[in-house]
């Protein structure tokens, strides 16, 4: 049963905040071999899958859109690596000018909620329902972007926040996936994860927050976009109030289930055109 519109407490009791961290180009294959203590600690204290799947092609804009819009590319229409507008007509245009996303749902059904999007890749801008979001910030460089995200979490305490960081994708393209340099960069990625996670504690909202982490795709050699397991398998991690601890999720997870899970947590009614399903196996 859904709660009434505007409620900040929903299916998971006392949850008022969700932070979604997206790491560009982080393939699941790398995590068991990587030195990432912060990420692995979050996995142990929450629920996770290393067999969540991208949509095809296993590229950036199409998958970030699918994650936020809870639908695949033949529904939302963004089909390419750098899509700025839909190449296929969107099945629906929402109240904010593009296909409905989690941001629009929150604005319409939780009008008092505060939302934020902070991203280091400029392509994210074209996938956002801008008029539905309170704080939108594009910051070049993952360290500066992390600092800005931390500042917003601590000072603004948004009810929903999406953070996009561009690594390890940059190293994957420049030097190669599954290389020593890639794993070296994952240490930096893990440090940034720790800073963002710690900011939730510093903000004093940890007991009311669910933290989520995923990716848009993995990679092979210096590229991605094809159908190999290294490209299509991505991590999907959820941790916080009401989430099972140290639980490996066996159910199939598609990247478009992320938006649906956030909507379910907040008790929002999902539009008919959405195709994602909430990942209920992760909930206590």
Structural overview:
This protein is an alpha/beta fold and 284 residues long. Helices cover 31% and strands 16% of the residues. α2 packs parallel to α9 (257-266) and α5 (142-156) runs parallel beside α7. The model is unreliable at 1-9 (pLDDT under 50). The protein has an eight-stranded mixed beta sheet, with helices on both faces. The protein has a single domain, classed as Alkaline Phosphatase, subunit A (3-Layer(aba) Sandwich), CATH 3.40.720.
Terminal Cα separation, in Å?
17 Å
Q: How many helical stretches?
A: 9
The CATH topology is Alkaline Phosphatase, subunit A
Number of domains: 1
The residue-averaged pLDDT reads: 95
Beta-strand percentage? 15-25%
**Largest β-sheet summary:** 8 strands, mixed
Structural class: alpha/beta
**Number of beta strands:** 8
Shape: globular
List SSEs in N-to-C order. Answer: EHEHHHEEHEHHEHEEH
Spatial order of the strands in the main sheet? 4-3-5-1-6-7-2-8
Low-confidence stretches: 1-9
CATH architecture descriptor text: 3-Layer(aba) Sandwich
Oligomer: single chain
Approximate helicity band: 25-40%
For the record, the CATH class is: Alpha Beta
Report the C-alpha radius of gyration, rounded: 17 Å
CATH superfamily: Alkaline Phosphatase, subunit A
Keywords: Hydrolase
GO molecular function, one term: phosphodiesterase I activity
InterPro entries: Alkaline_phosphatase_core_sf, Phosphodiest/P_Trfase
EC number: 3.1.4.1, 3.6.1.9
